[in-house]
């Protein structure tokens, strides 16, 4: 018997992603609102309380008015999880993704922030494309689209380091904390941290970005890393950086770790810093 393939129309992918792009910029998840309200209860600094109150009010205003939550509507990062038994009804998946992003940013009245060349000619593409696209091939006929609007203020504070294996878990903790302390108020805390461990240079950074798509308080399935996530969260919140870097108990809302096998001589660690405008969503078609 031949393999049965699931056919997915590119038009459906385009419409889904276009709507995702608009929605993530205006409708942050209810879990984020709940987490911010919990943070307000924990915060002891009066300045921190005021900042968190304004963030919560801004959250509700964006939702009710259907307006962007943050003026920096970010780089559009897209992860596609494509099953081995999935086919598309026509060619042009990459063009489909970029058209969806361009139309979403246009129809959603979202700021377009992408320049076509990073150094020589920094001219705005006026479409917020190309998107940063990552694909993963998985078994079966699954097809998932995950979209993120990643602001530059927090992305600029992300970091990577190739630690020696002897540095161990304490070296990892120190590097994560140093990243937070060096960032200060630049990434608009309270932040969320994605931590990549293992792989090589580019895989480690990708793990850190992918970690940010996990649901809040959804701990790593391995108890060791689940405990490390909680330890890092506590450590970062003891730093005193606080909301917007102005001091307080709530510097970070959550920490997520993703891992991958690595070389015996390596302990790569990457930290992808996310601001309180945590704009991600995943849809399965």
Question: Could you give a short description of this structure?
Answer:
The protein is of the alpha/beta class and 285 residues long. The chain has helices at residues 10-26, 30-42, 46-65, 93-107, 152-155, 168-183, 201-211, 223-237, and strands at residues 6-8, 75-83, 86-88, 132-138, 143-150, 159-163, 191-199, 252-262, 267-274, 280-284.
Would you write up a description of this structure?
The chain is an alpha/beta fold. The protein has two domains: 6-27 and 68-150, 2-Layer Sandwich (Dihydrodipicolinate Reductase, domain 2); 152-279. It is built from eight helices and ten strands. The strands form three sheets. A four-stranded mixed sheet has the order 4-2-5-10. The chain is globular.
What's the total helix number?
8
Oligomer: single chain
Looking across the biggest beta sheet, what order are the strands in? 4-2-5-10
How large, in whole angstroms, is the Cα Rg?
19 Å
Overall tally of domains: 2
In percent terms, what proportion of residues is strand?
15-25%
Overall pLDDT, averaged?
Answer: 95
| Cα shape | globular
How many strands in all? 10
Annotation keywords:
285 residues; 8 helices; globular; single chain; four-stranded mixed β-sheet; alpha/beta; Dihydrodipicolinate Reductase, domain 2
Topology:
Elements (H helix, E strand, L loop, with lengths): L5 E3 L1 H17 L3 H13 L3 H20 L9 E9 L2 E3 L4 H15 L24 E7 L4 E8 L1 H4 L3 E5 L4 H16 L7 E9 L1 H11 L11 H15 L14 E11 L4 E8 L5 E5 L1
Helix pairs in contact: 1-4, 2-3
């Amino acid at each position: 018997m031949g393999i049965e393939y699931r056919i997915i129309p590119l038009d459906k992918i385009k419409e889904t992603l276009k709507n995702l792009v608009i929605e993530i910029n205006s409708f942050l998840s209810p879990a984020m609102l709940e987490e911010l309200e919990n943070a307000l209860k924990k915060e002891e600094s009066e300045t921190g309380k005021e900042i968190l109150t304004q963030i919560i009010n801004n959250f509700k205003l964006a939702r009710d008015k259907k307006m962007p939550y943050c003026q920096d509507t970010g780089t559009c990062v897209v992860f596609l999880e494509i099953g081995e038994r999935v086919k598309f009804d026509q060619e042009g998946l990459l063009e489909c993704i970029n058209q969806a992003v361009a139309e979403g940013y246009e129809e959603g009245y979202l700021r377009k922030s992408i320049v076509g060349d990073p150094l020589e000619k920094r001219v705005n593409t006026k479409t917020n494309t190309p998107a940063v696209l990552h694909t993963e091939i998985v078994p079966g006929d699954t097809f998932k689209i995950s979209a993120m609007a990643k602001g530059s203020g927090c992305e600029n504070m992300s970091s990577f380091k190739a630690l020696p294996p002897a540095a161990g878990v304490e070296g990892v903790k120190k590097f994560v904390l140093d990243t937070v302390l060096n960032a200060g108020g630049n990434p608009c805390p309270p932040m969320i941290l994605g931590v990549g461990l293992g792989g090589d240079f580019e895989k480690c950074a990708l793990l850190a970005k992918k970690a940010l798509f996990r649901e809040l308080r959804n701990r790593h399935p391995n108890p060791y890393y689940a405990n490390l996530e909680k330890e890092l969260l506590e450590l970062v919140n003891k730093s005193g950086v606080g909301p917007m870097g102005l001091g307080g108990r709530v510097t970070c809302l959550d920490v997520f770790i993703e891992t991958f096998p690595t070389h015996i001589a390596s302990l790569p660690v990457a930290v992808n810093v996310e601001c309180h405008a945590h704009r991600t969503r995943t849809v399965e078609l």
